[in-house]
Design a protein that fits this description.
single chain; alpha/beta; five-stranded parallel β-sheet; 10 helices; elongated
């Protein structure tokens, strides 16, 4: 973890964004600000995974809705291959599932694309200092999601070992397809398990299920 005292003179940033006008606009903002430099820019996650290791940046700004591999799937792979790169989501999506999946996959922060330029640059510095910057409405959704659950003292949801394993994988950032592959199950069987999990935990979405499992200590 970086501290403010140990910040580099120039923070090197990579951009993973498929829309050229957004990508170039971000690069211009970064390169025209003292103390920041855009060292790499990629139009897809596949391109980033192939080239980012040649000169790993301090921070990567990552869109979610990329062609081919999604930003969330890419975050998980980047986190495994290059654990020192700090991964900051910059997207238009603000739904619970994507926020949860991104943070579980290893993102250090979650910003919406309407974030003002000055705040975006502050967030890059904040993540370098060990923070987890989030757009205000994203932070509110995360807080609300956790507030929704107050486990009873004797919480026992009678989840099977497979259901707990599935929840643990989802909590680590997997989606249904990769969780199914990891467990050697079909997507249909994973869906079957999820319906039982929803019933037992009394929730209505994957993000709620993961949040409740974390809150109640069912997974870690």
């Amino acid at each position: 973890m970086h501290s403010t005292a140990s910040l580099p003179d120039v923070i090197e940033v990579a951009i993973i964004e498929d829309r050229p006008e957004v990508r170039e606009g971000l690069a211009l903002l970064i390169n025209s600000t003292e103390g920041y430099r855009c060292t790499q820019r990629f139009g897809s996650m596949e391109q980033a995974l192939g080239e980012i290791g040649r000169h790993p940046p301090h921070v990567a700004l990552i869109d979610i809705g990329l062609p081919g591999m999604s930003g969330i799937e890419g975050v998980r792979i980047l986190k495994q291959r290059y654990p020192k790169i700090l991964l900051l989501i910059l997207t238009v999506y603000k739904d619970d599932d994507r926020i949860f999946e991104a943070m579980c996959a290893g993102a250090c922060g979650y910003l919406l694309k309407k974030t003002p330029p000055a705040r975006l640059l502050e967030s890059v510095k904040e993540v370098m200092s060990g923070g987890a910057p989030m757009s205000p409405e994203v932070a509110r959704r995360v807080v609300e999601l956790f507030r929704r659950f107050h486990p009873p003292a004797d919480a026992d949801y009678r989840l099977s070992p497979q259901e707990l394993h599935l929840l643990k994988l989802l909590g680590e950032g997997h989606h249904y397809k990769t969780a199914a592959a990891e467990m050697g199950l079909s997507i249909h069987t994973v869906g079957f398990h999820m319906r039982h999990i929803y019933e037992k935990l009394q929730v209505h979405s994957k993000s709620e299920a993961v949040a409740k499992a974390l809150r109640d200590g069912l997974i870690r």
